[in-house]
Amino acid sequence: MMGDSGVRVRFAPSPTGFLHIGSARTALFNWLFARHHGGTFILRIDDTDEQRSTEESMREIYDSLKWLGLEWDEGETMGGPHSPYVQSERREIYEKYVRQLLDSGNAYRCYCTPEELAAMREQARAEKRDRTYTGKCRNLAPADCQRMEAEGRKSVVRLKVPLEPIAVQDLILGDIRVEADALQDEVIVKSNGSPLYNLTSTVDDLVMGITHVIRGADHVNNMPKQVLICRALGMQPPQFAHVPLVLNSAKGEKLSKRRHGDLVSVGKYRQGGYLPEAVINFLVRLGWSYDDKTEIFSIDELIEKFDLGRVGKTNSVFDIQKLQWLNGHYIMNMDIAARTDAVIPFIEQEGLLLKTDLTPARRAWLEKIVESVGDRLTTLTDIIPQTSYFFIDDFEYDSKAVKKWWKKDSVLEILGGLRNVMAPLKTFNVDEVESAIWGYTDTNGVKRVQAMQPMRIALTGVSFGPGLFDIIELLGREKVMQRLDRAISHVNGGA
Ligand code: GLU
Predict the structure, then answer these.
(1) Is the pTM of this model over 0.85?
(2) Does CATH number 3.40.50.620 belong to domain 90-243?
């Protein structure tokens, strides 16, 4: 689905871990911007940090993006006119542009030693200057360079930054002015020959024809550097849009991989039983709003409505309860067959059933179980605690429920009585069971709740859940009888 509007955006994750929820939002905003404008969404892998980049992380990022439905038009695994889309495989391209910068006098080799640089930093601190590098190697003659190379000195490549303020425009944050003192002759190639992020990213954005760079505001300080590299190469920079950060609700701190662990990994939400639609809907509202009230958006609505003009300038707060609410909403909106399909992998993973064992009759039974849970699923994994008793017989009895309902003298008689009236029933459907049970309570002057709660614990282990008659029908006669017997023996002091 390659667009032809001319809009070209990219998502450029560094494969140093799982897909962070904030990065997923960046990917989503890029994807929506591309789809809204009929443009092209590119996936580029920023693996200049060779030590921290892994294949495994790359795969996890692809999986998470695909799970969210954020398919890319060009990029890794997809190919495209600018292959390869992994930076570590693009070294020759960067070398060509570095040569151009050196030849045109816009970049130079710097031979300063770590000690010399440390002294410069120290001096800048004493003089309260932001700029630390003094420009010592800016104007070295070729003979000086040769001499230092002959001495075995290593060099980095620095960009020659004009000593004047720079004004840049951000589509979200507005006009940004950076004072001359805040800029330095940035290192663009390390002494071991590795090009650095600002160089590789800028070159790729130019070469790949990126029109809009949409990314997290943690990169806003890189924008002037990247604009200067574009100018030094004599090229027009892309437009920039920096999206304010996602903060952790508790203390207003940045949501970080290190401190907030599972909360920030897209993969964990998938494993935790969240639906991609809910996660997308949640992510888009972290920073973007259509009006003051609408919370629920389908993908098609988002593609139609998404616009950078409605991205706020302030940081947004991560609110897990809102995600849970959205997830519950999306689960409820699935029809029973789809909801059943969605919970099966979780039930299977728990070892409670095998998908291959699902005969049509058993599938119909499972759908009724899912239906009986009603709107009580916040996540798909909630199906386990809410229904595991349908699949296992030797569940534990909840001790609080036992204390409350099984300690009365009448319990044994009531459980036995209920067993007796249900045993001879013919069809064991809801109507038949209901009239047998009410027949028993009415005839014996037993309050309904005094019969139902002890029986519920006997059949499910807990004192809450779906309608008890539904549970009885779904369990069937054999299991109901077995479970009543097990409960009677437990109350009697047995196992
Ligand atoms: N690799 C950078 C990151 O993951 C992306 C920076 C950019 O979009 O320019 O934060």
Answers:
(1) yes
(2) yes
